[in-house]
Write a structure and sequence with these properties.
122 residues; 8% strand; two-stranded antiparallel ribbon
Length: 122
């Protein structure tokens, strides 16, 4: 769906965004960022970072805590961060996402490397 308040898709965008920025910041060479939500609770009930042993400075527990503390990951925050409620030809269109895939397109807002400074300061 196209409803940005549903975290099924929007949280996948957010976790990909975080993972890409972590790798680009040099914190690891591989990473899986996992979040879980409960109905009626805006913030994730858990955030888990698994670098598969490729972390360079901080272990998975420290990285998990950092993500939980520095990224609200609420449906509202995700929607605003990526303008999911305002698709346009200059950002992304849901029809394009359906046709081209949800990841790997450099023009999608969740593919941007705009959190590098935040991760370099950990």
């Amino acid at each position: 769906g196209k409803d940005p308040s549903k975290v099924d898709r929007s949280a996948a965008y957010a976790t990909r965004h975080i993972a890409k920025n972590m790798v680009a910041a040099g914190l690891c060479s591989e990473v899986l960022v996992q979040v879980s939500y409960a109905i009626g609770v805006a913030r994730p009930t858990s955030v888990a970072v698994d670098t598969m042993g490729t972390y360079t400075k901080h272990n998975d527990d420290i990285l998990s805590a950092f993500v939980m503390e520095n990224f609200p990951l609420t449906p509202r925050w995700i929607t605003k961060k990526f303008n999911l409620d305002k698709p346009s030809a200059t950002t992304f269109l849901y029809a394009d996402v359906a046709a081209r895939g949800q990841v790997g397109q450099p023009d999608y807002p969740w593919e941007k490397l705009d959190e590098l400074d935040k991760f370099k300061n950990i």
